[in-house]
Automatic annotation (TrEMBL):
Positions in coiled-coil regions: none
Subcellular location: Cytoplasm
Record GO cellular component, one term: cytosol
Domain Uroporphyrinogen decarboxylase (URO-D): 43-52
PANTHER family, alphabetized: METHYLTETRAHYDROFOLATE:HOMOCYSTEINE METHYLTRANSFERASE RELATED (PTHR21091), UROPORPHYRINOGEN DECARBOXYLASE (PTHR21091:SF169)
Gene Ontology MF annotations: uroporphyrinogen decarboxylase activity
Top-rank taxon, per record: Eukaryota
Protein name: Uroporphyrinogen decarboxylase
Species per Swiss-Prot/TrEMBL record: Caulochytrium protostelioides
Subunit structure: Homodimer.
Annotated pathway: Porphyrin-containing compound metabolism; protoporphyrin-IX biosynthesis; coproporphyrinogen-III from 5-aminolevulinate: step 4/4
Matches recorded under InterPro entries: UROD/MetE-like_sf (IPR038071), Uroporphyrinogen_deCO2ase_HemE (IPR006361), Uroporphyrinogen_deCOase (IPR000257)
Amino acid sequence: MASVGRVAEPGAVEGIDVRRPFPPLRNDLVLRAARGERLERSPVWIMRQAGRYLPEYRSGRAAHDFFTVVRTPALACEVTLQPIRRYPQLDASIIFSDILVVPQALGMEVQMVPGKGPVFPEPLVTPDDLARLAVDVDVDEALAYVMDAITLTRHALDGAVPLYGFAGAPWTLMAYMIEGGGSKTLSKAKRWLYRYPDASHRLLQRITDLCVDFLVAQVKAGAQLLQVFDSWAGELSPAQYQQFALPYATQLAARVRAAVGSDVPLCYFPKGAASALPWLRSSAYDCLQVDWTVTPQDARVLAGPEKTLQGNADPCVLYADEPAIRAVTQTMLEGFGPASRYIANLGHGMYPDHDPEHLGYYLNAVHTLSTEMCRSAL
Ligand SMILES: Cc1c2[nH]c(c1CCC(=O)O)Cc1[nH]c(c(CCC(=O)O)c1C)Cc1[nH]c(c(CCC(=O)O)c1C)Cc1[nH]c(c(C)c1CCC(=O)O)C2
């Protein structure tokens, strides 16, 4: 098991000098997987690896509201490091933030209501409401706290693992801005697509423009990979996905790629929409994340040979005992082929009632089984 070495201790984050050059990276497995290089084992990280299932997160969060943590770089950094300190098996960190900081930068109020999730008190109702959104947003100013958290965290990690930055995909952000929170049917947001297609395209373009600037700024601040979350891609028909989600998700990647060059891998998660993978083959994304509703073998056929796949066990497998977790991991690794173009993850984020010990079983299973498989594949 790789040692994480000198990741900053709790409380030591405030003393970090962020003007120094970044420390050298000591574990580049996810970067090598994204580039399609041969691997000695599968790298692994987990969506929502920092979160309420961790007792250290709950005790820290008890003192602060969710968006206060997100907006305070030292707190966001501390929370990002918690899973890295606890699990030396993790091969990447992801900055503690939220996709909803982009609607906030556009001037919308978002509250995180305990037990309910995000709530927009004044969601967009008709195209007239687009006039309420801020114009010419300077992300370096409006979202400076995210970039500051990234720079601080990149130092505090001391090169132990690379740091992912992220953003919501335009369709998923549009859906939240209209629904005003979670929804079973997304009927309000989808109503816009049918009733107001032109206004929908205008909104999607404005979100895309802001997300391009935001992702580029995250790279300048120190993010080493980027992930775009399209959590509600699976709610759209294929025709609507092709009209309203795909063009903006791919435009986002192309523009970010043109600005940051080819060293920073770009990842995209069209949740629930594995049928979209063939349309992403020609996109600028290097990695495509899949959930558990598609087999690894089908995901590979759909995505083609040139994309790195990320995923995909059902997070609920972590409720099982260690042998069952190991068995599911074995099937998953065999399906993807652990020696190249694969990054292990779950098919969605951790749940608050997951047992942290069971995540350890999953991470250990990925390490031991993928190491054995990569060795025997030589
Ligand atoms: C849809 C979405 C959101 N946020 C995000 C997505 C895309 C991924 C996905 O599909 O889950 C992305 C996100 N949100 C969070 C991260 C942090 C990084 C990480 O993955 O560790 C990331 C990458 C922290 C968070 N974001 C949130 C929490 C829990 C809130 C808390 O601590 O009180 C965390 C740790 C809140 C949040 N934020 C959002 C929702 C729906 C919720 C409520 C979830 C819940 O109640 O379990 C919007």
